[in-house]
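Minutes, project check-in
Item: structure for the 327-residue chain
Input as provided by the requester:
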Amino acid sequence: MRAVTHDRYGAPRAVLGVHDVPVPTPGRGEVLVRVRAVGLNPADVFITTARPAFMRLVMGVRRPRTAVRGQDVAGVVEAVGPGVTSVRPGDEVFGETNVGKGSGTLAEYATLEAAVLAPKPARLTWAQAAALPMVGLTALHAVRAASVGPGTTMLVNGASGGVGHMAVQLAKARGARVTAVCSGRNAPMLRELGADQVIDYTQEDFTRGSERWDVILDNVANHRLRDLRRVLTARGVLLVNNGSRGGRVLGPLPRMLRAVLYGLVVRQTVKSFSFAPATADLVALKDLVDGGELTVVVERTYPLEQAADALERIAGGHVAGKVVVTL
């Protein structure tokens, strides 16, 4: 089968190529999926480049342990491994691999744990379904971590990106009043997705105004934590979600640690959050999509042969929605 692989770390165009590799065999609890589309994320860039350097501790010190890249996927179940009863061959599914488990998804076939797959939303194309898992799960856990509900005022910094455009919609679905921060060119998209207010960051710095929010989801890390806290309500929640900024060695970890320390000494809640992909949460996203409450924006699709170009597009930043590779 064809797959996007690399045996060293570096810029996507320098190290990634399409090669013939054996079709993986599903182990116990795993599913073999015939891949129709792969959603790409900044995490795929970090793994390809090993920047920040601490990624090597997870992915392999000298070279990547898993040669095939890609984590999000949408496709058709081809076969199931021992112990799998939740899906069967022919089922249309979507999901996200756990790092270090299963195979990479930028390939004609991929293995994933059955526990990280769910039925594909009927309303979505293959590309849209593949774009949903990582960003949708991140946004879902963000609104849960902040207990967003009716009457909550929430600001999403970096609202036009993958996580951001999901968070705007999920917060609106929970009854919140949402302010989206993005560039002016993406403002119409955010208004269409339900944002009550849109701030063009090229024209206005929201941390210098008088408005206060109950929840701030920071996907960009372009403001100091204390400046973000200044525009929180007295008991507000600041959610730190960013891995694309920081030093070459530790990346966002120092900022996330500072967030934890802030949370220990101030009345406001300042925290990062994490999660593992799970079928139940993917089903929750599917139900929102099929109920018309969640839309997935795909900026552009690329064929498998241009996967390196797709990752370079993500590395360049300012993607509106998601970038997807289709097969």
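Outcome recorded: The chain has a mean pLDDT of 92.
No further action items on this chain.
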